[in-house]
Queue: 2 jobs
Job 1
Amino acid sequence: MTTSTTTSITSVFIIILLLLSTDATTTTLDSDVSALKAIKAAIDPTTIPSYSCLASWNFTSDPCSYHHVDHFLCGLSCSGNRVTQLTFDRAGYVGTLSPLVSKLTQLITIDISDNKFSGPIPSSLFSLPNLQTLNLRSNSFSGTIPSDISNLKSIQALDISHNSLSGSLPNTLSSLPLTRLDLSFNNLTGPIPKLPKNLLELAIKSNSLSGFLPKPSFSDLTQLEVVELSDNSLTGAIPGWFLLQQSLQQVNLANNGFTGIEISKPINSNLIAVDIGYNKIVGYLPVNLSAYPVLSSLSLRYNQLHGPIPPEFSQKATLKRLFLDGNYLSGLPPKEFFSKKSSVSGSLGDNCLKNCPISSQLCLKSQKPSSICQQAYGGKGKQKS
């Protein structure tokens, strides 16, 4: 081996050693370290199991070092010397979220779901300029959603479901660049405000939202695919424009106080599943629902619908699940439902139908007593057949 070759190899080794040495001495920004210390200190130490991520947070080591063996094994991620993710395990941590989380200005993701954090969500959290995902699901956070949530200029996904939030939804929600919003299973009240225009999925089920479905709140949502607003206190008629939103695929408005429904014939609709069960909707079964080209699942169970079942529903090839039980539908059910070619499941029971064959699973639930049906149709002999 020549002297020049030996020198070259030696130089390469020196460079590698220097790189390793530099990597090993990388130190996390002091403000990030102090924020992490505050976050851990705000958690009851008796609820930090020995096997958990937070148990491995030992500040004798550098959090963003790439050579951890015993310390900072999980719970955070870094880019260079900055913390970019807080992703806690589901260890049952009890405590509050320290306001000093706002010092982690390079955070992209916060996920502390399925723990036992309580108290208000610190408003300082909403100042994080790069935060894209905030998941506080299944904790015990309380208080209101402050209007300065609008400061989350990069937020894409927000999940604060299964907590104890109260008050109304802030009007500033509309300015967020959200694609996914889940505020379900809280104690939120009041009307639905104007919503973020980039939404793909909206879920605010099991709250106490009230009022009508306001068109201005949904008017800019051209990409909205999923709407989950069941188990609230929404009222009035479901307006004709609602199901015509061009990207809608799934809608659940069950368990509210809707009293009417307006259905217009669709144009190029993508609607697959609709649940409007357990409301107070009166009138006839809207035949225009059968015109939605890819509709596969429909529930209007336990409303106050009268009149016959339009034959168009039994002739619809895409319809696989149909729940119309618990109404006052009358007359003979369309015979196509009971042919060997039919693949529709669901229920037509607890209505006022005539000759619904008990050999069909659609008719397993019995019909209403004739006395109730006669009363619903204004007296004997007035029931439609």
Job 2
Amino acid sequence: MRRVVRQSKFRHVFGQAVKNDQCYDDIRVSRVTWDSAFCAVNPKFVAIIIEASGGGAFLVLPLHKAGRIDKSYPTVCGHTGPVLDIEWCPHNDQVIASGSEDCTVMVWQIPENGLVTSMSEPVVVLEGHSKRVGIITWHPTARNVLLSAGCDNQIIIWNVGTGEAMITLEDMHPDVIYNVCWNRNGSLICTACKDKSIRVIDPRKEMIVAEKEKAHEGARPMRAIFLSDGNVLTTGFSRMSERQLALWNTQNMEEPITVNEMDTSNGVLLPFYDPDTNVVYLCGKGDSSIRYFEITDEAPYVHFLNTFATKEPQRGMGYMPKRGLDVNKCEIARFYKLHERKCEPIVMTVPRKSDLFQDDLYPDTAGPDPALEAEEWFEGKNGDPIPISLKNGYVPGKNREFKVVKKNILDNKVTKNTENSSPANKSASPTPSIKSEAKLEEILKEIKSLKDLVSSQEKRIINLEEQMSKIAI
């Protein structure tokens, strides 16, 4: 007897929108015509790209700050053109990168408890694209490695710690790049391009490892993401404008492993993938539903699980990393759905009767610690994500201050000279360090007093402006 219904612990996953008082209201979500998610979340903050006059801006809200967001709430507003894509650093919950129409990529360090005043000074500005930058994605396992792709059809991989462009992939894409995705250990990337091709690229060798032309026949945008087993999952359109989901083996991309036809809507399907459970969630821009599928090794490989449907269409979608979920409620995914004027969290749960920790739902997941430093990765090393257990819920550690070091050739020479110095000099070194600590204290005090001075002057300026406006009236 063949079982009619396939056994799966995710068959009864159900989605639920949170109550109104837990939504983020009165947010003017960006109207830019670009197919990015417009929202990025991590266990501390939710960031949303918003409408901004005279430049580009995004909001960064602490997760607990639900309710109505005041119009005067501070924003991150350093770009001179609309922001097209944002992404949180996987290794530091206070660092976020943004790409914009002004051709730059900026990296920001958000204060521990969120913004108090608007932020217009990034930690580092990465300049190298000649057209707008629409795709930003951090390396999954190496610290401070950031990839950006622009409408100049180039991909640049940066060492954010030094602010340098280390790898530039030109002449690989003849047209606009729709998306870029790293594989699990960050040794390869896959891209979807307007020329209807899917490419798997080794960025350090600067070569295309595998390529499939006309992965989807339709003319509308595609998406391609890596799965944890190294296969590639793509979403696109058929010639008849039906939306498709396909699975590819990168060793042989002649024919797809499987293709699923879905419906004839025209919104681009944004795939969100959970490598721990092998569930992929498809959120169509302009759709009012989230479909989810389980990927397995046996045919038909892609198994439809269910659809979460609402009345309102989504303008964008944020996806919470696994370590930000509530394991006590058997929550396996959380989305942040953007409406025209608000952001609404949607919780996906597996119904279980037991209150105990469900280790089959929560295998060890990628933690926030990087496996490699940027320099090691550029030299050719690879590292798998360092797993953490969610058994007692994830407790965020203290994030290191993010610093950008501009390389100076003179520094190298100085260090070499000091190394050659005699042991006598070395033994005398602890005293200067005490002096330098005192000096540092002094400098920090000075900075604090300057900050206080600036804030008092700001208040004074505001008062004067108010008085001026009264006089003008």
